[in-house]
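To whoever picks this up:

The nightly regression suite flagged DUF4239 domain-containing protein as changed. Nothing in the input moved, so I suspect the structure step. Input below, exactly as stored in the fixture:
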Amino acid sequence: MSSWIVANVPSWLLLILLVVGIAGGAVLVRKLVRRKFPQLAGADHNDATRFAYGVVGFVYAFFIGFVVSGMWSQINTEDGQARDEGTAGIQLARDLTAFDQPDADRIRQALLEYERAALAEWPQAVRGYEYPPADKALQRVYQAYQQVQPHTDTQKTFLATSYGTLDKMSKARTERVMQAQTNTGPSFALWTVILLTSSLVLSCAIIYGVEHPRIHSVMVATVGVLVAANLFLVLELSHPFLGEMATSSDPLRDVISVLSNPST
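Regenerated output under the current build:
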């Protein structure tokens, strides 16, 4: 469910919906609770509420910070994998100058076909699907290198180095695809804890004894906005390959650009 929301709802609209829904809903609940339990407007229970709010708020802040930090680290890891894949592709393109022109042209064409297939594979992997054309294109790249007959020590060195770089690119792509296909976001248990702690924070703000209704509404709305912002971050960061904060496929596009313009 969270993946569908991140993939189909613009981030700005998602943030607005969360803020309006949670903050507005909390203010409405405050009015209903105060109407049914008018004694909560007094300050007699504030000592207990203040203690509970301090404990809940601390646990909530620590927990959400831990979750967001972990998710952000995951996105940074995937960004690094994508950059490694792109860097390896660009290095292979630059090393082609060491080979004879027919070999260089053949390898360049095979690399270009592979990078285009990998780029087409990107959204398919995010949806959990296999993309066989990318595997076949990668095999053709290996075959193109296997056809090279080095004539000089320099060519032998570059050929050995290219095999190592190609293996790195293949490994980075495999890790990226596996992560994209298997990542389903936070588990049901984790979402339960996130929503439970968020509800406790809002509940403490709602039952806190404040004599003036407007001041209390502002306080509840402020806490609601804070909770909404945290839930927005969790949603946007929960899927490394979806949404506006997701890992970008730009490194693959950069490789295609270099291969398409050998002079650059």
